[in-house]
Amino acid sequence: MIGLIQRVSEASVKVEGRIVGQIARGLLVLVGVEKHDDQANAQRLLERLLGYRVFPDESGKMNLSLADIGGDLLLVPQFTLAADTRKGTRPSFSSAAAPELGAELFEYFVAAARERCARVETGVFGADMKVSLVNDGPVTFCAGWKAMRLGVDLGGTKIEIVALDDAGKQLLRRRVVTPKDNYHKTLQVIAALVHAAEAELGQHGSLGIGTPGSLSRATGRLKNSNSVVFNGQPIQQDLEALLQRPVQISNNANCFALSEAVDGAAAGAEVVFGVILGTGVGAGIVVNGHVLTGPNGIAGEWGHNPLPWPEAHELPGPSCYCGKQGCVETFLSGSGMAKLHQMETGISLGAEEIVARAEQGDTTCESSLQTFENRLARSLAHVINILDPDVIVLGGGMSNIERLYANVPAQWGRWVFSDRVDTKLVKNQYGDSSGVRGAAWL
Prior knowledge:
6-stranded mixed sheet, 5-stranded mixed sheet, Nucleotidyltransferase, domain 5, single chain, D-tyrosyl-trna(Tyr) Deacylase, Chain: A, elongated, alpha/beta, 3 domains
């Protein structure tokens, strides 16, 4: 919740030419409500603005509060205070509360203020208002109370929670085992992690969940999860009922991309394509700091497209769990590299071992690694031709192959439909913490 505080000698607000609120000496406060705000945040902001020592004492120093001088208070709702102006030239209001929540919390804020102040006047929520004031000084402060951010990364084998402050500093991080094949027990574990984190830190937080899969726009239930126990479950609805708060949900790849775009390896970039190359292959798209999901909820599902510009021996391609053949995932996942190496050489090695042996001069492993680099270059060139991102960030176990960051961009220009390629390929900043951090930023 945000308050823009101005010390005034007088102020008023009009709606349709009629004065609806007017004060003499005191504070004019423009009040913005964000989507994760609650009554606790409203109370904290009220305490801060009433306690601000912004009025002069006998020596002329700002040492007196509104209560000390018995001043008036004019509260005016202004949703534009919640705008995200970090990137681009058009403000985004995705952080602002929905009108219903905004009106409810503003009215709560006004009622709480009237219990503490002798004279409280207000504007009208949602109206076109004209505000007039004489700023005394001028003296203006921006005060706010932002809830900490909680993120949960839900995986097939582990559940992780992180708490971040508004600047992204990690306050807490915990990890537990995911209950095997038990949806309802998994929900209870998530709830217990959230309650324990809030009890330990002594504050309430917003909550985002990164899931294996995405929510269906048609049913509101989870789909496309490789942890099949979650498929078909109304996980967002169930968690909101269990925790009695809004819960933001996005798939793990989107959370990874968001984390790296907000304050990670791609911070400051306008368009970010975040790639996970691990046991599976996924991706997320972030534009101006916001996850792009699309009308079908599948934006960034890059791993289940066919390998582009295939060579004859790559067709029809390995079978994929999605029911198709030749998906990018079957070529670029760690297990995909291992299976293809075995097919070519008859030798069974894991991806890490293939990379290690290539570095030691093993020619068959070097050949497999070069083939992997070529396929990755083709697959990312296809993305560049469609999305043209500023930065591509690699995550997952395969992102630790350092030579990819030089060798792949050196090749992808062969397939990109441009005379030059300025897209950067970078390694993630937060490693296996990136997904859970991204969930907190939702």
